Amino acid sequence: MTELRIDGRTPDKLRPVTFERGWSKQAEGSCLVSFxxxxxxxxxxxxxxxxxWMAGKGKGWVxxxxxxxxxxxxxxxxxESVKGKVGGRTHEISRLIGRSLRAVVDMKALGExxxxxxxxxxxxxxxxxxxxxTGAYLALAEALEWGRxxxxxxxxxxxxxxxxxxxxxxxxxGVPMLDLAYTEDVRAGTDMNVVxxxxxxxxxxxxxxxxxxxxxxxxxxxxDLAIAGTNSLTxxxxxxxxx
Amino acid sequence: MTELRIDGRTPDKLRPVTFERGWSKQAEGSCLVSFxxxxxxxxxxxxxxxxxWMAGKGKGWVxxxxxxxxxxxxxxxxxESVKGKVGGRTHEISRLIGRSLRAVVDMKALGExxxxxxxxxxxxxxxxxxxxxTGAYLALAEALEWGRxxxxxxxxxxxxxxxxxxxxxxxxxGVPMLDLAYTEDVRAGTDMNVVxxxxxxxxxxxxxxxxxxxxxxxxxxxxDLAIAGTNSLTxxxxxxxxx
Amino acid sequence: MTELRIDGRTPDKLRPVTFERGWSKQAEGSCLVSFxxxxxxxxxxxxxxxxxWMAGKGKGWVxxxxxxxxxxxxxxxxxESVKGKVGGRTHEISRLIGRSLRAVVDMKALGExxxxxxxxxxxxxxxxxxxxxTGAYLALAEALEWGRxxxxxxxxxxxxxxxxxxxxxxxxxGVPMLDLAYTEDVRAGTDMNVVxxxxxxxxxxxxxxxxxxxxxxxxxxxxDLAIAGTNSLTxxxxxxxxx
Amino acid sequence: MTELRIDGRTPDKLRPVTFERGWSKQAEGSCLVSFxxxxxxxxxxxxxxxxxWMAGKGKGWVxxxxxxxxxxxxxxxxxESVKGKVGGRTHEISRLIGRSLRAVVDMKALGExxxxxxxxxxxxxxxxxxxxxTGAYLALAEALEWGRxxxxxxxxxxxxxxxxxxxxxxxxxGVPMLDLAYTEDVRAGTDMNVVxxxxxxxxxxxxxxxxxxxxxxxxxxxxDLAIAGTNSLTxxxxxxxxx
Amino acid sequence: MTELRIDGRTPDKLRPVTFERGWSKQAEGSCLVSFxxxxxxxxxxxxxxxxxWMAGKGKGWVxxxxxxxxxxxxxxxxxESVKGKVGGRTHEISRLIGRSLRAVVDMKALGExxxxxxxxxxxxxxxxxxxxxTGAYLALAEALEWGRxxxxxxxxxxxxxxxxxxxxxxxxxGVPMLDLAYTEDVRAGTDMNVVxxxxxxxxxxxxxxxxxxxxxxxxxxxxDLAIAGTNSLTxxxxxxxxx
Amino acid sequence: MTELRIDGRTPDKLRPVTFERGWSKQAEGSCLVSFxxxxxxxxxxxxxxxxxWMAGKGKGWVxxxxxxxxxxxxxxxxxESVKGKVGGRTHEISRLIGRSLRAVVDMKALGExxxxxxxxxxxxxxxxxxxxxTGAYLALAEALEWGRxxxxxxxxxxxxxxxxxxxxxxxxxGVPMLDLAYTEDVRAGTDMNVVxxxxxxxxxxxxxxxxxxxxxxxxxxxxDLAIAGTNSLTxxxxxxxxx
Lengths: 243, 243, 243, 243, 243, 243
Fold this sequence. Notes:
6 copies of one chain form a homohexamer. Chain A is α+β, with helices and mostly antiparallel strands. Chain A has a single domain, classed as GHMP Kinase, N-terminal domain (Ribosomal Protein S5, domain 2, 2-Layer Sandwich). The first copy, chain A, is built from 6 helices and 9 strands. In chain A, a hairpin with a 2-residue loop joins strand 2 (about 30-35) and strand 3. The longest helix of chain A has 27 residues, at about 215-240. The radius of gyration of chain A is 18 Å and the shape is globular. Chains A and E meet through strand 3, helix 1 and strand 5 of A and strand 3, helix 1 and strand 5 of E. Strand 9 of chain C pairs antiparallel with strand 9 (about 200-210) of chain D, so a sheet runs across the interface.
């Protein structure tokens, strides 16, 4: 019997997931996350204060930037700094990460502080945006803790409303599968990224027909699989934060 | 009794939709589409031949660019040409339109021809990307007809696999609503754009929690509403093409 | 007898000119102007206040930006936003429009208010810059009225010193002609754009030998024709404002 | 009696004009031109061959680039290379110089050769574009001679149809004046640049009302003055070429 | 007695140096190098063939790009991709790394192959350019081996002429010190980077007076210290390659 | 016997050096420097005040920008303003000039004043960066004198700590040579630029192996030759300042 997936996983299994918290000596929060061979360094930079246009409203701001090292991928890609512009895909993912993180932060409770999350893909093997979001949550949690210890955040405030995790799902040869590696992603007819809270509610759902359009039943199957995946990631995040 | 919506629509109604086909004397296909006060000029540029890196494979290419005039919106936005870079939102929508259109085109049947769809928002009142996709389909259909008449496309080929329409849906004060105008969009807690085929299958589903995360039941309600909306748009497109 | 011009006009006739005032629901002033198949959407954005470097002098500012949609022309042109820079021709025309409009505005009477005129060419068939100036004057007039109604401009102030119109003239096969369409423009040996006030004085005169240099007699003939043309446009503007 | 002009000139006099031919050891043609304190280094780069899109038509191409050193002016201007974009004024003048030079070159006689003229303003005191054109003509003439000696241009071909010179004129306090220095230019109500051939015909006429619009009589007066000025420059160019 | 250096090193000691060879699963050669808390990921991308302008000469090319993650440093730096341009320091270091590597490669022996070395600083604590060069050499060596195994490089060819290592030295309070950490670098009056071969000859010497100019005796002292440092690094590289 | 150098110089001789002080009527300090056929226009722009981020510290700032005219070199180079970015080499040299000048300026004595030095290469024949530094020193000295006369600099302050000169040296066919012309520079195996004070101490030493790495003895020989060269330049600068 041939295996469905190159690494022997069943369709509903995540790849091995690891979180290396506190990877950076420089950042206020950091996490080197890996989903199989996908490795993303997430750092959180905490600044007391907000941009001038936001000042005086008692609210903070969280934003994110995503990027890939030129040789994270199988063949080298030119640097966006050298090309002089940020590509559409990079823009799109940076916006997704920032928007997702803001959904679990109470900006009033954060107070007038700014957190920038940088997600740099050191090695890419599919699912870089979902690994980035899942790791970014841990870097964010560390940075919030750092801010609380230094009293930039009020002791009674609870800026984190929930935890956040993300996973990709897709349909390959008719079978819905969880957490696609690059070679699987290429073959998937439908591709979906789901960002969910620790409570199992949706923050973002993005499904795309790469090949044939998909019907409601397929969509439902993918959503079931995705929520099971983010639930597992939530548990792994809980363990990482407990260390 | 107060009205739910500023223009008196029921939650499941589209705004008045019009298609002005053949608006441009210059383009091979064109349509000025309006969804209420949102007006988008869609033009299709047909070129015989494909970029060098695609040549010799017997396949064509369809791509799209979206942009907004600086005073399409209520306050003026600086031009991206003057700023010297395309913004993230613009990039994201251009990619969405191109990807969606490609889902209903058989590239083999198109043959080695390139179609570029430009969607320029002349006036914006919410739902610009969904109006753009819905109008772009008509411009594309015209351009394909133009190509067939000039024998750039084989007589027996049927490059269009299906029709394509898109609509936005959102939850406002707990009520799912169809085709949000700008003031509604701003108030929506959850915001979703759905691109669907004339057969009622999904090409793209993008749901975002602008406020609180949403649950499965809310997601299901929005999908129901969206499909009803795209079905109505499909019928209007059919009438426009029949004229 | 063969016709001199493709559309049967005599050399001294304008193409059909229309002004669709108040086209935009968003802008403080707007006009969709057409000179034959050339269509330009002109919007005026009125802002109370001036840039910091001008503040405190009791004077206002008027500026303009011109741009063409990528498929306004017969073959598609790449977007300047995508190329990352504004081209020389675009710069040149934007500067011409702004300079011309400022010649009929009393900046003291305008007070510390800023007006930005955007001229976006939706369809191009020659004479886009002259159509833009002629339509921009109407958008400007509307925006000044808007500012006066909201008391941003003093009731007694008369910021508009005169009306403004522009037209192109050229010599084709030895015959001076008014308001050249694109195919005529290409054939013209000498090409001139004239911007004039309602009183018939010159604001800008730009004559260029595309082929052989021109002599004083030819220059004089072109100026006569141009002033006759701007006088007709002035009358059409007067009627449009009276509606 | 007070002098009309700061340097004691009568209204119809040029400033002292000098041409330093062959200034550059590197370029195929060069001239350091000065109109009073305005100094422009003009170099002509001759390349055998034309850009690919022009090849095979037996015709050449002439183009120009204008730029100012950052401290050519009284206060320092940021470099366009550092700002990352070429400004509108620079673009406009580069296009003017190139267009003007092409008006006196027979592209067929030039053959498939390309000449790029660089006009770099080393010191600016008004009239930089007219000095640039006048000096550029000499650099061009040298480069054509260079090309003929090396047989890139046929012995019997006469690519230069005429000579070319340019001068500014303006109305200051009601008096038309020739060749404005910077302090005069600032005061001028109407400002005109005229490019003319050695035979006294017009190549380019650009008149702008900086203050009040101008009438036909003023325009005529300025044209008379300008042609007298370019005639004098033509004579000085003839002498410089004879050396 | 107080310690001279924050980490207790004597002036002539390197920080702990580690080389993690083969870090990347994607690149043809890679090394994660650390000099104390400075960590640089070096990847080598091997391409069979050379850019068109170099083709047909039987020679290869080696080039390098250096960059820093935004939060590699103590406070966050804006991304160069977002700013739209590569900064002077980045350019300068990229050029230094490429030039240095080329000094130990025989381009004829490499044959028509291209190697691009990317050095991305994941964490910065002084000496990032010297760590980058020292690690880049190992990535280069791996990539050359990869190319030889796939026969892109002739079996008898020996493209690597020597090994390459680099170290920084500086004078702090009058004492010459080896391999400066960031806090030391800031205090150094004179700062020098030396790139040397395994044989102990110089490839690049860059000494800069940050404070007072330095004399010949100080220069000599720094060079002695640097060569001792690169000799130690050479030995560590030899061990890493032997693993 | 054949001559070692194309212009008959002995290896330890400078090319003819001239300084044209006060070349610019616009700048506060200026010098047109030539080293043989290399000609660089250096202007110093003195501004009372410092950038906002430096204000209130009682210290000044000196910075520099280097650029080459497109046809300074034997074949034309595209303008960096047109390419939209400053190249690595330009950046590197601008930084070198600024850093070198700052080494001989006491920023406290300068007070809150800013000096920008522009070095524009009008003609290039090797050694442009060393000629630029040597001329920039004279422009700087003039601008400081200008600032003192206008009392922007305190009468007792001596912001200039020393004079500054720079020269290139290189090894050609085994012979160390001073002040390389372009054709020599191309042949040099090792290339070094040395910036030194009038007292003979080093401000910057940059040696690069273009071919084979160099040993300590070669390095020592080059340094000897360079210091002799900068000493001669110091003497010529002294004479120029005395005029």
